[in-house]
Amino acid sequence: MVKSYKSIVVNEPGAPFTFIERPIPTPGDDEVLVKVLACGICHSDHVTTDGQFPGIQYPRAPGHEVVGDIVSVGSGVSKWTVGDRVGAGWVAYYCGECYQCKAGEFPLCVNGKVTGVHNDGGYGEYTIVHKTALVSISKELDPVLTAPLLCAGLTVFNGLQQVHNLQKGDLVAVQGIGGLGSLAIGFAKQLGYRVAALSSGEAKRDLAHKLGADYYLTPKDGKQSEQLIKLGGPKVIVSTSAASEPVSDQFESLTGGGTFLLIAPLESFQINSVPVLTKKLRVQGVNTGSPEEAEKTIKFAGDHNIQPMVEAYNAYDLDQVNAGFQAMDNGTARFRGVLKFY
Asked: Which Gene3D superfamilies match (predicted)?
């Protein structure tokens, strides 16, 4: 086995990516060593690159949409063996004992850790993963297409599953048709909902319908909120990007008991409190999901032929790494960027 590996790190908050050579680590008793095949590029990687969590130790390799093969296991690991294909998402560790864990809210574990924040993530040839964080992945699946399901796909799928009183046939509006929105359309359609895709122009109309959207709404036909009301009003608005009209207008288009599902960060916004009260509306955030929920997401996607739309980048070319990250940052990426290590 090789003695060192290449890792893509930031040396301090705000610093550029750079390559460093590190010795191959030895997993602890409850850990495994994974040879990384692919890792998705996610907006949440800014937590590490910008130092948004206290106490991050640098240099640090981000990345929490990791797919790879186990090459070494600790003495306390019995479920997993060398050669298993696995994934690692946002949750790097959960204790299983705190009140959040006992309620099944493993991503909110009070003692929890985050992949690529509290430990080195998937922006490197190898990474250490705690046994509580491991996700089983079939070797029949393409690592590049599977990586985004470990955060982007999981967040969208989990969010839809957690919406209160969402029934088959209800209208789900998806704001934005990028990496998250394209997955939201596919999952919503296959879960049995009517789907309205909201976009700023005509460029993605054909794609949206191909993904499963029943309706495609743009500002050229009038306010999207008014168009939604004419369709009966959505039970859910899945917000994956900034809208072409105020969030308050979209929010008020929700039908009674509806939910504004916040999948990705938005700038601060205002909403009218009156329909919140009279229509019992809610704003709901989604904080990814557990490894077990990731496995359910991957299975559902496979069973229903839902594949992330990706743009792959060579992980051994720093120019491509930077290009992928910058495309995500400046909004020029059409879909999910993935670093490819093979």
From this structure: Medium-chain alcohol dehydrogenases, catalytic domain (3.90.180.10), NAD(P)-binding Rossmann-like Domain (3.40.50.720)
